[in-house]
């Protein structure tokens, strides 16, 4: 339990610091959604919400803004006409890269100044493990989407 506590505190503090190093064009929600979409070919709004551990309805406005800006495109889901799929556009990838650049530059600088090469290598391994842990159970549909088709909520937010 002590290891879990120490890791959570370190990750939480680091995440807060990294969030402060941003361009500020995108909201944190928009950045999160575009980040999910950048890692997927196509994904439903419900799946995006599941990966972000939130309800699809809470991202409705975020999806709409991203679509209005031309950063996300919505296409019909060929396997389920009741849903749509979200795809990040080239402009969406660019605005996300621009948003993340200050974070990457800050981190590259602080890594170089504060850590030895061995410590940097260790952090790369730790980051890979943290990404793996973050993906645990992501392939399981959220409970609200695992109901019978008749009562299944419409998820084309």
Quaternary state reads single chain
Please report the first level of CATH classification, the CATH class.
Mainly Alpha
Coarse structural class = mainly alpha
Number of helices: 6
Written as H for each helix and E for each strand, in order along the chain, the element string is: HHHHEEHH
Give the integer mean of the pLDDT values. 87
CATH superfamily: Winged helix-like DNA-binding domain superfamily/Winged helix DNA-binding domain
Large-scale geometry = globular
**Mind telling me which CATH architecture this is?**
Orthogonal Bundle
Order of strands across the main sheet? 1-2
The major sheet is characterized as: 2 strands, antiparallel
Number of domains: 1
Percent helix: 55-70%
Strand content: 5-15%
CATH T-level topology: Arc Repressor Mutant, subunit A
Instruction: Please tell me how large the radius of gyration is.
Output: 18 Å
Question: What does this protein structure show overall?
Answer:
By secondary structure, the protein is mainly alpha-helical. It has a single domain (2-139), classed as Orthogonal Bundle (Arc Repressor Mutant, subunit A), CATH 1.10.10.10. The chain is built from six helices and two strands, in the order ααααββαα. The protein has helices at residues 2-20, 28-39, 45-51, 60-68, 90-114, 117-134; strands spanning 72-76, 84-88. A two-stranded antiparallel sheet has the order 1-2. A hairpin with a 7-residue loop joins strand 1 (72-76) and strand 2. Helix 2 packs across helix 5 (90-114). The N and C termini lie far apart (39 Å).
């Amino acid at each position: 339990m002590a290891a879990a506590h120490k890791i959570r505190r370190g990750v939480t503090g680091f995440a807060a610091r990294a969030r402060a190093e941003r361009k500020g064009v995108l909201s944190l929600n928009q950045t999160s959604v575009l980040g999910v979409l950048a890692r997927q070919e196509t994904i439903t709004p419900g799946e995006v919400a599941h990966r972000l551990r939130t309800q699809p309805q809470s991202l409705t406005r975020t999806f709409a803004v991203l679509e209005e800006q031309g950063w996300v495109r919505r296409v019909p889901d060929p396997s389920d006409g009741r849903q749509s799929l979200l795809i990040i556009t080239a402009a969406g990838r660019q605005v996300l890269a621009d948003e993340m650049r200050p974070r990457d530059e800050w981190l590259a600088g602080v890594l170089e100044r504060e850590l030895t090469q061995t410590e940097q290598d260790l952090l790369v391994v730790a980051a890979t493990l943290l990404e793996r842990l973050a993906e645990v159970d992501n392939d399981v549909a959220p409970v609200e989407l695992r109901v019978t088709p008749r009562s299944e909520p419409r998820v084309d937010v």
